[in-house]
Automatic annotation (TrEMBL):
Residues 20-444 form the DUF112 domain. This is Tripartite tricarboxylate transporter TctA. The chain crosses the membrane at residues 51-73, 117-142, 149-165, 171-193, 205-225, 261-283, 324-347, 359-378, 390-410, 439-457, 469-493. It comes from Hylemonella gracilis str. Niagara R. Keywords: Membrane, Transmembrane, Transmembrane helix.
């Protein structure tokens, strides 16, 4: 009954005219932020913080605005990922793997509408989880120390093995390149400069957005430019259907539910983020179906490969509010910005927030649900509008996307060096694509490399270098066991399946 009473209080706050208007505006702006390559939810939210404070918005209204932008950006990132193979934001990288092939098969509108539904389901599962299990899940997240986070990253890399497909050597090399990129910059523990080549601009490392935009936007545009100059044409036919059908909904239903729950679990862990959730969810679905399901075609346009990362990244993004609200620990970079916004109002997130500011907390939870419904109603009817991007001629599309990408990267730090670095990474990504190198393992290496190293260093510093801490807790033991199963079981199942086929 307490939950129902609290939700009643929350919806009373959320349904005020001002908060409804703010949620709608935030959802729309968030979608635009997600569509623009390089901008991302962190920058979108950060740009609105001073505006919300300057307008003297009440704290619950300001938080509703920022949360709606955050969730909207997770929706919007899928649009360019599907249509032109350029992730709108970091968590949409995995969406390109099957979203773009579906668009090239004439299913752009189907992919857009199905991904909107998966995003809606992911956010809905996470919102229900916040309302029902926030204190319980927060206590579970406290069990994750540096050692447990390191083992979680090991598990993610073991799950990466399913992304390597029929090119294990090239995939492993791509992941190693990603890890190498993650080591650039000043070592946070010793202060030593690593691989900076005496360039002060590399002291803080290479920003993830620069890497993603270079590998995807610039490299993809160079590929399109090559096709234009050589007369080759990558056909992306117009969509015949506007929406997915019931058969496709049933086909992806359990994938969506599984990935939503998995994304919520990852999102609750402070610092893990939506990018990790989408990668793990995609790898999990690929491992479950490939080799056993004759209809599985992950990487070539499988609807489950589209639904899994979209459900997971939205669920993780929404789930990251739990550690922020209950522990005072940011669950992601974007929620860290939101915590900063709350401090402007002299509000400190933490265990007492639910008792001290119930209207703010439950108003936020109710507004997340309302914004989620608004985003579904915005995105599904507009799939044909989004799909019309495919009719833009290449000679206009290439410079337009490059211009937006340059603006997004320059907005990060106002550095021309980042622009040159993005172009250099794009050229390298273009050459690697020509050699058949997969981009997803490289991006995952960049995402997880820094987290993995920092948590390993912290864990070892606690015990003066004793490795035993890495398997001393029940959580670590479970994660090590799962990592071993992920590596051993799929090859055994594939061999068993091959023997059965040979026998028949």
């Amino acid at each position: 009954m307490d939950i129902l009473n609290n939700l009643g209080l929350g919806f009373g706050v959320a349904f005020s005219p001002l908060n409804l208007l703010v949620a709608a505006i935030g959802a729309f702006l968030g979608t635009i932020v997600g569509v623009l390559p390089g901008l991302g939810p962190i920058n979108g939210v950060a740009m609105l913080v001073p505006i919300a404070f300057a307008m003297n918005l009440p704290p619950e209204t300001a938080l509703i605005l920022l949360a709606a932008v955050y969730v909207g950006a997770e929706y919007g990132g899928r649009i360019t990922s599907i249509l032109i193979n350029v992730p709108g934001e970091a968590a949409s990288v995995m969406t390109t793997l099957d979203g773009y092939p579906l668009a090239r098969q004439g299913l752009a509108s189907v992919a857009l509408s199905l991904s909107a539904w998966a995003s809606f389901m992911g956010s809905t599962v996470a919102i229900l989880g916040i309302a029902a299990f926030a204190p319980l899940v927060a206590n579970w997240a406290l069990a994750f120390g540096p050692a447990e986070y390191f083992v979680l990253m090991v598990f993610a890399f073991c799950a990466l093995s399913s992304l390597l497909g029929d090119k294990p050597v090239k995939g492993a090399l791509a992941a190693a390149i990603g890890l190498a990129i993650a080591t650039i910059g000043v070592d946070a523990n010793s202060g030593v400069y690593r691989y900076t080549f005496d360039l002060p601009e590399l002291a803080d490392g290479i920003d993830f957005v620069v890497v993603v935009i270079g590998l995807f936007a610039v490299a993809e545009m160079l590929q399109m430019l090559e096709n234009l100059l050589t007369g080759q044409k990558v056909e992306v036919p117009p969509s015949e259907r506007k929406l997915f059908n019931l058969k496709e909904l049933r086909f992806t239903w359990w994938t969506t539910i599984r990935s939503s729950l998995m994304g919520f679990g990852v999102g609750v862990l402070p610092g893990a983020g939506a990018s990790v959730a989408s990668a793990v969810a995609y790898a999990n679905e690929k491992r479950l179906h490939e080799g056993k399901d004759p209809d599985a075609k992950f990487g070539k346009g499988d609807l489950r490969g589209l639904a899994a990362p979209e459900a997971a990244n939205n669920s993780a993004a929404t789930g990251s509010f739990i550690p922020m609200l209950t522990l005072g620990v940011p669950g992601s970079g974007t929620t860290a910005v939101m915590m900063g916004a709350l401090t402007l109002y002299n509000i400190t997130p933490g265990p007492v927030l639910f008792d001290a500011q119930p209207a703010l907390v439950w108003g936020l939870i109710a507004s997340l649900f309302i914004a989620n419904v608004m985003l579904l109603l915005m995105n599904v009817p507009m799939v044909r509008v989004f799909a019309s991007m495919l009719s833009i001629p290449g000679w206009l599309l290439v410079p337009g996307i490059l211009a937006v990408s340059f603006i997004g990267v320059y907005a990060l730090s106002s550095s021309t060096f980042d622009l040159l670095l993005m172009v250099g990474i794009g050229l390298i990504g273009y050459l690697l694509r020509k050699m058949g190198m997969p981009m997803a393992p490289m991006v995952l290496g960049v995402v997880l490399g820094n987290l993995m190293e920092q948590n390993l260093r912290r864990a070892l510093s606690i015990t003066n270098g004793e490795l035993q801490i890495l398997w001393s807790s029940p959580v670590s033991v479970v994660l090590w066991s799962l990592a071993a199963l992920v590596l051993v079981v799929p090859p055994l199942l594939r061999k068993r399946h091959a023997r059965r086929q040979k026998a028949t």
